[in-house]
Amino acid sequence: MKNETGTFTRLLSLDAMRGFTIAAMIMVNFPGSEEYVFPTLRHSKWNGLTFTDLIAPVFLFIVGVSIALAYSKRLERGDPKKPLYRKIVFRSLKIFAVGMFLNLLPHFDFSDLRYTGTLHRIAIVFLFCAILFLNTTWKQQAWTGFGILVLYWLAITLIPTPGIGKVMLEPGNNLAAWVDQQYLPGKMWQGNWDPEGILSTFPSFVTGITGMLAGRLMLRKITPNEKANYLMVTGFFASAAGYFWNLAFPTNENLWTSSFVLVTSGFAAMLLGTLYFLIDISGRTKGTAPGIVFGANAITIYVLADILALFFYLYTINGQTLNIHAVNALVHIGFNPQLASLLYALLFVCINFIPAYILYRKKIFIKL
């Protein structure tokens, strides 16, 4: 981000937000016991919004902000776009390939392979949004996002589900699920539907676009306090609009509904505004170090967590995995099973912090 001298500086609030989001993602992905998890640390079964449902859209929002901050510099310098396109495509393919690798763990059974997932969606959203950013103004981006949300809403709520003959918004029985059943290769996460399927990817683009718009705001020549205020106010109104849209098109992460996009992007904007005010404006950096360390190699640590989990969740002693041993030990000394499961998840986050810290101290930043 540009400072008063016209040079670009790191946005520490964004680094911390990225890192804490990855830490939260690891925490909810790897509880001590799948049987004992606080309700808000699970994804909503269908309609609704939990803490866990916020994590993926917040990260995609951050991807959008990062695109605006990174590629604005290149556009201002007049860098040719062709090499940028190559880098964008190559990076997207790398992230997608790593996602495929994780889906193959631990047995590498290609006959039961899933072609979607968190990293896959990050890769696709990054590809779409980065190319869009290089070729459009912020107004065109805003209208593109608005158009996608409206068209998606109309498609899901007005087009009858083929084979059923009427509009359905139930798990496995809706237009998005039907499209996945017809055209999505490989295994689907929920048998006959996938939360990261084809149609639901389109509104996820808009989550990235809202991040790009926030990034554009951060680059405007206005005071830091004004930037924080704009983020907070626009975030509030976006969430409020999403709440009212929810009355006609329920907030649903599995379908990545239009109301879900507005509510979560609004939350992400308010969160960034708050962190920007506290960290970059007020200089209150105490407690932000873990987020900055995780954020320096965010996707790398996310991948490493999946690999480390193979040991903790598959290796058995006396017929039980290490995570179950840990939870049982905590329960034995008097902890509530759900709290014990959460404490184990936090311990696992701390274990992943060790390699993240080593990479950060050695100034090794792995770009995926």
From TrEMBL:
GO MF, one annotated term: acyltransferase activity
Residue ranges constituting the Heparan-alpha-glucosaminide N-acetyltransferase catalytic domain according to the UniProt record: 10-221
This protein's record includes keyword Transmembrane helix: yes
Alphabetical list of InterPro entries matching this protein: HGSNAT_cat
Membrane-spanning parts: 12-30, 50-72, 84-106, 118-135, 142-161, 198-218, 230-249, 255-279, 291-315, 342-360
Keyword Transferase applies: yes
Pfam family of the protein (one): HGSNAT_cat
Keywords from the UniProt entry: Acyltransferase, Membrane, Transferase, Transmembrane, Transmembrane helix
Name this protein carries in UniProt: Predicted acyltransferase
Organism encoding this protein: Dyadobacter psychrophilus
